[in-house]
Amino acid sequence: MNITEKIIAAHLVCGELKAGSEIGLRIDQTLTQDSTGTMAYLQFESMGVPKVKTELSVAYIDHNTLQSGFENADDHAYIQSVALKHGIRVSKPGNGICHQVHLERFSRPGKTLIGSDSHTPTCGGMGMLAIGAGGLDVALAMGGAPLYLSMPRVVKVELKGKLTHNAAAKDVILEVLRLLSVKGGVGKVMEYAGEGVRTLSVPERATIANMGAELGATASVFPSDETTRAFLKAQGREEDFVPLAADADACYDECVTVDLSALRPLAACPHSPDAVKPVKALADVRVDQVCIGSCTNSSLADMLKVAAILKGKTIAPHVSLTVSPGSRQVLTMLSRCGALADIIGAGARVLECACGPCIGMGQSPKTNAVSVRTFNRNFYARSGTASADVYLVSPETAAYTALYGKLTDPADFPQVTVSLPQTFEVNDNLILRPEDHADTEVVRGPNIKPFPKTQKLTKNITGKVLIVCEDNITTDHIMPSNSKLLPYRSNIPYLADYCLQPVDPAFSARAKENGGGFIVAGQNYGQGSSREHAALVPLYLGIRAVLAVSFARIHKSNLINNGILPLEFIDPQDKNKIREGDELIIADAPSDIEKGDTVIVTNKTTGDTIVTRLVLSERLKKVMQAGGVLAAGKSE
């Protein structure tokens, strides 16, 4: 067996290890963050479960940390109180980014983890099966339910050689994205193997696993070996170590090979993580802003390399440089060893240990700017400035770029090496334990609104086509994420006015005027974040079905969980038979779903009959008929 199969087999509640079939997994750990967590806990409360049933659940506050009004603080108070009441640990603001802190303090080889954040697979660098999911799936897991998903295909990514020429772990995953594209991992787990794995530290492995989300992969998994043991020992958690490796005769569905020694620094160009080119080919690109951090590249090793490059130098006059350490542990150790002074001395603006610019919380670049970031996504307008071009690079590339004011290839400089301490500084006093707060009462501010209720699937579904979208519509398109909207993550009625605004500013008004209707889209609809709001807001607006050429995994699950039909065109050319304003009808959706895997859609405006695919397990058929997973649970 390969590693993925071993972990799944050890946690299998139902189903079989057959690619494409539905399986149910026992979940050991969950995490939430404050951008998605408020809604997840409202859903968890509605289930009536007094205490979480997982081995460990942690609520992180790391996204909505700009407090320019009461809204974010209200959400934080609600999350902290509801989590402690129900047996969930709380990582307070300032303690760090959920994925970095979880890797440091809670990740355990061989365990399962789901999180209401698409970059939860970061902990695959520790040998976990870590999966991003919608908030409702996380709420259900906290209540003791299995995580249901299609048994993924397993891709062996064989790493050969060793990184040289200042190439970094970021360049490894950019190379995989170049090879496979943002759709290349859908329905798959990327499992890393080969002698090159042994040359990578746990934080480097975590960087690679983190951006597996950009492939659309269900998860990314590394072995648990002596490198893993050393990292856990440095964190004071050696007892959590379990060796984990694929069998010598393990089989895989696909294989990809990356020669680490042949890699050179890469950059993802605007506006997609798979638009990858060598940094050397972009040497004439003048840069206005450099942002170093995010859950992808904010480890101690990353920051020490940045400090080594910047030490004794000054950034280019026209460049704004920000640095966001990933956790309070990282920031504390940087300050004690003097590396923080080197970063500050070069002219960097040091931000708090939080997601910050990556999630749209500040640092939007100027008009028509070029921003170089060590983040994981460079979707159009995600930076907060629609006219800006964002490039994704390694910390080494970012640091040299900040110094020279243009995209600069670190391969032209001596190899940057840093030494990590054998023991990391551990201080968990900003992690609240529920047993220390037994009498907590839930606090609800005026910004906390109920989540929208689903409706039982009706026989006849009619409505107008409200919008026709292109390929690769992201959750940032469907439900924008920026400093103005993030404070309203617990207020669906408010967010509804901004649904699909980057694609068509008039969409929300049109949806309300028509009492709902249909969305039509191309390939990979809903790629990107796990944010359930990209399903909850359309639900609130009366969207009953989305017709697309294909869907991203998490978003498709979120649509089903909330009673919205995700219909795939059997013939992709059928998308061209639909125009905005056409009236569609599904004459008997319940019967179509019960009988098989197709749903018939008639375009009343043109007379065309369109056959769509909706492959559901028997369990999901009941969910869809009931109008969503919560409604199905209450009807049992």
Concise description?
The protein has 636 residues and is an alpha/beta fold. The strands form six sheets. The chain has a seven-stranded mixed barrel with strand order 21-22-23-24-27-26-25, surrounded by four helices. A six-stranded mixed β-sheet has the order 7-6-3-4-5-20, covered by helices on one side.
Q: Give the helix proportion (percent range).
A: 25-40%
- The helix-and-strand class reads alpha/beta
Q: How much of the sequence is in beta strands? A: 15-25%
Instruction: Give the spatial strand order of the biggest sheet.
Output: 21-22-23-24-27-26-25
- In total, the number of strands is 27
Give the count of helical stretches. Answer: 20
Q: Please give the largest β-sheet.
A: 7 strands, mixed, barrel
Can you characterise this structure?
The mean pLDDT is 95. By secondary structure, the chain is α/β, with parallel strands linked by helices. α6 runs parallel beside α7 (202-210), α9 crosses α11 and α9 (300-310) runs parallel beside α12. The relative contact order is 0.12. The chain is globular and about 70 Å long. It is built from 20 helices and 27 strands. The longest helix has 16 residues, at 70-85. The protein has a seven-stranded mixed barrel, surrounded by four helices. Strands 7-6-3-4-5-20 form a six-stranded mixed β-sheet, covered by helices on one side. The chain starts with a helix and ends with a helix.
Please describe the topology of this protein.
Elements: H1 3-11, E1 12-14, E2 22-25, E3 29-33, H2 34-47, E4 56-60, H3 70-85, E5 89-91, H4 98-105, E6 112-115, E7 129-132, H5 135-142, E8 147-150, E9 153-160, H6 169-180, E10 188-193, H7 202-210, E11 219-221, H8 226-234, E12 254-259, E13 266-268, E14 276-278, E15 289-292, H9 300-310, E16 320-323, H10 328-337, H11 339-345, E17 349-350, E18 370-373, E19 389-392, H12 395-404, E20 431-432, E21 461-468, H13 475-478, H14 492-495, H15 507-513, E22 517-521, H16 533-540, E23 543-548, H17 553-561, E24 565-569, E25 583-586, H18 589-595, E26 598-603, E27 609-613, H19 618-626, H20 629-635
Parallel strand pairs: 3-4, 3-6, 4-5, 6-7, 9-10, 9-12, 10-11, 15-16, 15-18, 16-17, 18-19, 21-22, 22-23, 23-24
Antiparallel strand pairs: 1-2, 2-8, 5-20, 13-14, 21-25, 24-27, 25-26, 26-27
Helix pairs in contact: 2-3, 2-5, 6-7, 9-11, 9-12, 19-20
